[in-house]
C-alpha cells in the first residue's frame, strides 16, 4: 500500500464532548475516514501519521440524514468514523501543545 493512500484515509479527527470522554476513559480517538477504508488500512494510517501503537479499530458507518432545503427534500452525505484504541501509555495531541 502506498503512503499516498495512507495519508488520504484519515480525513479529520472528530472532536466532541463524547469523543473527549471516550479518549480519557478508554484511550480511544475518533477519526472521520474514507468510506472505502478498511480496519487494517486505518490502523496503518494512524500508526504512520501519529507515530503511536494501535491496539484495535472499530468502524461506524453513519447514514446521511434526510433534510429539507426549503421545499426541496435533500440528503446529507454518508460518513464513516473509526474509533481507534491505543496501547497503554500512548497519546495523540491534536492541539499541538505539550
Descriptive report:
By secondary structure, this protein is α+β, with helices and mostly antiparallel strands. The chain has a single domain (3-86), classed as Alpha-Beta Plaits (2-Layer Sandwich), CATH 3.30.70. It is built from 3 helices and 6 strands; from the N terminus they run H-E-H-E-H-E-E-E-E. The model has no long low-confidence stretch (mean pLDDT 90).
Offer a concise description of the structure:
With 98 residues, the protein is an alpha+beta fold. It is 30% helix and 36% strand.
Topology (SSEs and partners):
Elements: H1 3-9, E1 10-13, H2 17-26, E2 28-33, H3 39-50, E3 54-62, E4 66-69, E5 72-75, E6 79-86
Antiparallel strand pairs: 1-2, 2-6, 3-6, 4-5
Tell me, rounded to a whole number, the average pLDDT: 90
Q: How far is the N terminus from the C terminus?
A: 32 Å
Strand fraction band?
35-45%
Q: Which percent bin holds the helix content?
A: 25-40%
Q: Give the uncertain stretches in residue-range form.
A: none
**How many beta-strand elements?**
6
Q: What structural category arises from helix and sheet content?
A: alpha+beta
Rg over CA atoms, rounded to whole Å, is: 15 Å
The CATH class turns out to be: Alpha Beta
CATH topology: Alpha-Beta Plaits
Amino acid at each position: 500500500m502506498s503512503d499516498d493512500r495512507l495519508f488520504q484515509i484519515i480525513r479529520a479527527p472528530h472532536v466532541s464532548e463524547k469523543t473527549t470522554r471516550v479518549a480519557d476513559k478508554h484511550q480511544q480517538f475518533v477519526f472521520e475516514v474514507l468510506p472505502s477504508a478498511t480496519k487494517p488500512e486505518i490502523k496503518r494510517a494512524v500508526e504512520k501519521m501519529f507515530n503511536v501503537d494501535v491496539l484495535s479499530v472499530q468502524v461506524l458507518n453513519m447514514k446521511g440524514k434526510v433534510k429539507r432545503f426549503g421545499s426541496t427534500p435533500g440528503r446529507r452525505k454518508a460518513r464513516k468514523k473509526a474509533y481507534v484504541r491505543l496501547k497503554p501509555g500512548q497519546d495523540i495531541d491534536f492541539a499541538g501543545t505539550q
